[in-house]
Amino acid sequence: MHIPAPVTLVTGAARGLGAVIADRFQERGDKVHPIWRSSPERGEALREQYAARAHRCDLADAEATERLVERILQIDGKIDHVVHGVGDFLDAPLEDTEQADWRGLFESNVMTAVHLYDALREPLRESGGTLVLFGCAGAARAKGRRRSAAYAAAKSALTVYARSLALEEAPHGVRVNTISPGLVPHADADAYTRDAARFASVPLGRAGTPEEVADVAVWLSSRDSSYVVGADLAVAGGWLD
């Protein structure tokens, strides 16, 4: 019996963790739809690799997000798995955080997820699919921070949204979980993440790799994790625990 390949949507796929995650799903044999917003040259590279399944979309735009999901359904007729890793970062104390920064952080980290799932709710219920959102290490503890407090607040809000969504969608067969990376340096990461002086504070004594995060995203989108719902998995080597 032929089993159709899973259809997987990966946001923020033009660079960083998203690019590695999209590649991992393609290696698994999924029909991958990478989503990107900026970086035109990287968008072209995605189109070369994924052809018509590569899409440019600003997920902060609810209507554009709805049209994106419609295009994916037109191409492959279903959506099985979604990994949403979009979200701006800000390394600053509160006194240097402008009101526009707060709005931008919540729009990019929280509202993009809300827009995306509002568009995906019915397709994922139909497929009994999975959604993986990205938090950040330590955000679930709601602990005060001297820097990046606004970013952590946005990710804390996203964590509550994800756990609530997991409760609401589980009866419909949709599994929602969160990955919270720690210090995972890569070429597109903020300087905060690439500061080697911070690596000594990680209990494992080293930074993580994008591949380690990608492996967890793939696992949460597999049958091996079929009883995992509402979890927030820290991929952080024990950092901020």
Computed Rg: 17 Å
Q: What is the strand tally?
A: 7
Mean pLDDT: 90
| Strand arrangement, major sheet | 3-2-1-4-5-6-7
Write down the CATH topology. Rossmann fold
Relative helix content? 40-55%
* The number of domains: 1
Query: What structural category do the secondary elements indicate?
Result: alpha/beta
| Biggest sheet layout | 7 strands, parallel
Q: Which H/E pattern describes the elements?
A: EHEHEHEHEHEHE
What is the CA–CA distance across the termini?
46 Å
Task: Give the name of the CATH superfamily.
Answer: NAD(P)-binding Rossmann-like Domain
* Number of alpha- plus pi-helical segments: 6
Low-confidence stretches: none
Query: CATH class, please?
Result: Alpha Beta
What can be said about this structure in brief?
By secondary structure, the protein is α/β, with parallel strands linked by helices.
Overview of the structural elements:
With 241 residues, this protein is an alpha/beta fold. It has a single domain, classed as Rossmann fold (3-Layer(aba) Sandwich), CATH 3.40.50. The protein has 6 helices and 7 strands, in the order E-H-E-H-E-H-E-H-E-H-E-H-E. The chain has helices spanning 16-28, 40-50, 62-76, 99-127, 149-169, 210-220, and strands spanning 7-10, 31-36, 55-56, 81-84, 130-134, 175-181, 232-235. The chain has a 7-stranded parallel β-sheet, with helices on both faces. Helix 1 (16-28) links the parallel strand 1 and strand 2. The longest helix is centred in the middle third of the chain and has 29 residues, at 99-127. The mean pLDDT is 90.
